[in-house]
Amino acid sequence: MGSDVHIHEIQYVTAAPTVDERLQMVLRMGGARAGKMLGERLIEAGVKGDEAINRVIDLMNYCKVGKTTLGETIKIKENCERFRMKIAQPSCYFTTGFLNGLFSAVKNQRVREIRCIAAGDPYCEWEII
Q: Could you give the CA distance from residue 26 to residue 122 in angstroms, rounded to a whole number?
């Protein structure tokens, strides 16, 4: 899908960040299901833990989701889910759900978005909890 697909464009048109919390939840749940399924498939293939996470980060970069790095946190510069939006709170609903699904399946951990380009930050960032 890469940089030609902008989830925030859909959110902008539907006013998801300001009007419909149900749509926000749908995006989070869809992301969580996709992340969990991918994590489970990697485990079935014998790819576990940090190796599985690193492979998914590489896949995200290959697919041009953004410039994704993994350290103590996950950072995405030029995140495809951030275009046009300017709101007060982090709003990467699908990506947050996806990362939560992946991390819960592979490492029994969760993530929480702490920075977002749409909220005026220079990049999107998730802490691993």
A: 26
Full strand arrangement of the beta sheet holding 73-77: 67-70, 73-77, 124-128, 111-115
What is the CATH code of the structural domain delimited by 2-10+21-128?
3.30.1380.20
DSSP SS3 for 41:
helix
Tell me the chain's radius of gyration from C-alpha atoms: 14
User: How far apart (Å, rounded) are the C-alpha atoms in residues 105 and 36?
Assistant: 5
Task: Note the pLDDT tens digit of each residue in 27-77.
Answer: 899 999 999 999 999 999 999 999 999 999 999 999 888 899 999 999 999
- What is the model's pTM? 0.83
